[in-house]
Structure formats: structure tokens, C-alpha cells
Amino acid sequence: MRQVHSSAAFTLALILLGVPARSQSGPSSQASANDLAGRVITNELKFQDDHTNWMYLLEKEQYQKKQVAEIIETKEGSLRRLLSINDRPLTAKQQKEEDQRGHELMSSQSAKRKLQRALDA
């Protein structure tokens, strides 16, 4: 995700630097565009090596089935925990299955390798 954001910001900066100001705008406009592009590039370079982990909710609807999951990024890969289906919390059985899946994933070396391969791809 960070790479997509970085390349988008870099593309924006190139566009801003490469597009000449319209004849109506004065030198201060061009300087403002250059300043903005410079700030964008500086900001992106500053956070390029940021290895912050994120936690967020993912809402997904497929085949008239809405699922909300919590995603937790780790250095080994992203962990997903299902929270609700069709706006209803998980049943006790479903929660237990999610807990079991999470424990297996965290303790399984092959699952960790699979996550790492997916992360590296």
C-alpha cells in the first residue's frame, strides 16, 4: 500500500514540475507549484523507510454477503479476524473458530512462511 501511495505522489510531483504554468499565472504560481511538488517529494522520501504497522477494518460485500473484518499488519504479514457477517456479530461458535484459526496461524511455521511469501510477492 505504501508503494502505491509513494508512486502516486511521485507521479503527481512529476506532473506538477513538468507542466508549465498558464500564461495568465505569474512567477509566484509556478513557484507555488514547485514548492508543493518539493514538499510532496520530501514528505514521501521521509516516510519511505517507515515500517509502521497498521490496524484497520475491512468491509467486503460479495454474493449478497457483507463481511467486516479487522486487519492487523505485522512484519510477517497481515492477520485477518472476521468480526461480523451481514451486520450481525459472530456467533459463539464462529468466534471460537476465528480464535482457533488465529492461534494456529500464529503458531504454525508453515503459515508464517506462507504469509511472508505473500508479503514478498
Molecular structure report:
The protein contains 4 helices and 4 strands, in the order ααββββαα. The protein is α+β, with helices and mostly antiparallel strands. Strands 1-2-3-4 form a 4-stranded antiparallel β-sheet. A hairpin with a 2-residue loop joins strand 3 and strand 4.
Instruction: Kindly give the count of domains.
Output: 2
Q: Round the Cα radius of gyration to an integer and report it.
A: 22 Å
Tell me, rounded to a whole number, the average pLDDT. 75
Structural class: alpha+beta
How many H/I helical runs?
4
Helical proportion, percent range: 40-55%
Hey, roughly how much beta strand do the residues contain?
A: 15-25%
Q: What is the chain-wise order of helices and strands?
A: HHEEEEHH
Tell how many strands the DSSP assignment holds.
4
The coarse overall form would be elongated
User: What low-confidence regions span 5 or more consecutive residues with pLDDT below 50?
Assistant: 1-5
C-alpha end-to-end distance: 13 Å
Strand order of the largest sheet: 1-2-3-4
* Main β sheet profile: 4 strands, antiparallel
